[in-house]
Amino acid sequence: LAVALALPSVALENGLARTPPMGWMSWERFRCNVDCQADPRNCISEQLFFEMADRLAEDGWRELGYEYVNIDDCWSAKQRDEAGQLVPDPKRFPSGIRALADYVHARGLKLGIYADLGVFTCGGYPGTMLEHVTQDAQTFAAWGVDMLKLDGCYSTAEEQAKGYPEMARALNATGRPIVYSCSWPAYQGGLPPKVNYTILAEICNLWRNYDDIQDSWDSVLSIVDWFFTNQDVLQPAAGPGHWNDPDMLIIGNFGLSYEQSRSQMALWTVMAAPLLMSTDLRTISLSAKEILQNRLMIQINQDPLGIQGRRIVKEKSHIEVFLRPLSQAASALVFFSRRTDMPFRYTTSLAKLHFPEDAVYEVQDVYVGKVVGTLKTADNFSVVINPSGVVMWYLRPMALRAQPWPVIRQQAP
Question: What span is annotated as the signal peptide, if there is one (predicted)?
């Protein structure tokens, strides 16, 4: 029993993902498109990842922290080789994964890869059954991989309970620092008693709790609803080295309006979520790029305290308020409108939002980028929020009595 309890903690101390990982991932935008003859520009191939690495390195993404280039499903050949090893599809990845990793590393970036703890991956490619866990971990390390996403299609609850901790141990045993992203809780409904978040945080650096995101506002809202309805369970589980993952950012694709795109970015930031874009960086619009490259937003997302935010107000007017405590007694506030009719004027005060008494804050509008004034806790103020949109503030205390946030973070009014 002592050995069983001790083993998972090896993963917790891998020292990685002290802030939520940032980067790019292929799945939501490019799926399992393997027809490189008909669609060479958009199929899952080494060329796609070479080009995305170039964009991250040359278009200002890398300097902001977007450092992972993550391969998702459908990269491998349909069978393992004679030695039982996973191999990339020889036509679509003729240079091999090691060469791709070298290319990515040469640009100051990191490479992520996908596997599945089961007979097959979700896309029908060779899975990582229990007998292959150690071998696959060694293969990924030898290739120079920096992050592993381990999915859970075609596996049982019992296999997952054995395999996810086993992969954590196997990755650590390679000696290579590899961020470990688990899909385990998503396959178990995401909630206790089936999911033990204390154990999970000792095994994985980040984990998918809920359904795959799709390119639609309805999908974003369903994820937001689930995460904040269950925030009492989820919020304490997150922190440096172990994060809840509500799935990819779909900003820059086809399903979100401008206001909805701003909302996804703000809500993912307040959730302390990994910022893994899944869009075509070769053709991304200027407006989408500005949302994703907002420096203050990224600073808030990457706050070293790593406290996940909470929904603290849910009004009958379909306005919701979210709070994320930050280092140096600062905080982020998001005012979010679920309305679909017209801009709404919402009036409240920091006192109503349970901020400390007798404090004064400098208020910076995260999307405008400018300081909009100072605010005492007791002052009433109004914000005008567009339909499906947000107003996001960064509040920095100018005069604050000694006590920062631990009390507020635990209990919504």
Answer: none
